[in-house]
């Protein structure tokens, strides 16, 4: 391709047939692997189906039931809480990456340490934290007892704290990912801008807030969307650590959907929940995009 | 040249897509290739891979070899998958109408959708042949019944027993209880001495359900629990509410390990096996841990013993067990070799009954004559218990439909966690059962 001149390239690209040919493979894959299953999920949601036998068409019944299902809204609330905490934690990640990017000693090593949780599989992380939270022998309660707290909570067994107890490993798991993204974005800021700010007498806080942050705002917006969408459809750690229990107190939308479809053989109802999950995620994404949209794009 | 490139890329893309979407139908070819009428092939799918269940795997191969020798016109083609993959494959092949001729199924709720979809063949004719039905332990074939027909031949049977560490019991001069009141005394003594009385991992929920099931089985006497599950009686009947209340009291009284609702059964098991808890209610699939498993310390194995769940308030019968069959064999309704398959499952289940306990430590669903088998004492005791069993109350999640079972299991966790009252617990069950019918 490199041997082609620019004009020749333009000629190829203006050929309708070529355009179609080039985008077809990707489009085909997306259609077969993503779009079609999405539509099918919505369609199964209209059925009374146990996943094995024959389906019966029941119209919108599953969707109506889902909207009136208190357990579903509980799980949706838990997912939203997770989204909220994930977004708030971005502030901490941003601060950490700013410090890392400001040429402190050992930044390289620290960056790698922060990335370690990303390299572990979710199941390994879950097993690790199950041990940490073990009410009798876990390291957390051992420390708490050591500093004189007599009845430390049974973290994963207590319906009031279990949700927050699980949030911590989830946030920990993704910290490295966001720090890496912010770090890369911060490293892209031209040194000259910061130099001139310093010459103008800006202190480090001002540089961070007034120069660096606006310059990486585009990246920050993307991470907000990633964090929120990722939280809304979050499943793995929760499924392994508590299975949504005790009594549904740590159930999120995706785990609720899984339980319905695969534990109770309500494939139709589970599909309806899955489809609602998609719609909720889409709506939230659109809202976030609207909220964070800004007309001016900062150039440097 | 340019066009060529685009076309090859496109072709490659399509091929990839086809491979990805087409892999399901490709890998599940059926075994009717030999259509000459002479040689028949039975496709048999099971879930005991050589790596994780070597003993099971070997017995299966032995039985098949014997069968093929006796029936030279029949070949049995094996496909072996691990548990979760097995379940997935069964579901996928069922929707595409390509179930194996013979396979394994779980009883109760798991079986139902396959029966509703008319995918499994009724096996009553097999059971009625040569009195096969009578060779099974009471209640096991019933677990595979849907609307009066039996769709599976049970292979395994497990009953729940209270295992205990006799070293700990001896230290505090405790003895096997016969009544619940004695049992409560034991719990209190252990608590006073700062020993965790009972290991329980109630995150898995069926573990807590065992306690309620036993309590309800004892207090409900003449099958009240089963009637309630079938919708013929109410869970709000006094004995069943009392069972829930007693279970809740036991939990509130600190009888179970701290934080039990957040512990998995695996964690509870390791507490019992590391002698951090004195008792542990679990089904007999755990027997190898306490007898033959060489990775477990001999001292611990010597110390472990078990007792039948006690009678409660003088009610119930210690010869009534909560338990259930594990996997069983099904024959596909659409099989081309249905008669041969039926003959094969009959042969298989008979031979399995003879070999499984001595060769793999699996208690079969068929009655075992304990006179001439060489087994650890604990096995012999359990087998004798089963031969003398008066009643088998099936595990709740086996007996109930999946929807009701889910309600039951959630309610169990809430009951143990004191989030609901015994009355609410009863009402949740009645509602779910009524909705289901």
Automatic annotation (TrEMBL), chain B:
Signal peptide residue numbers: 1-17
Record keyword Signal present: yes
Keyword Signal: yes
Name of protein: ABC transporter substrate-binding protein
Keywords: Signal
PANTHER family the record matches: ARABINOSE-BINDING PROTEIN-RELATED, BLR3389 PROTEIN
Organism of derivation: Marinococcus halophilus
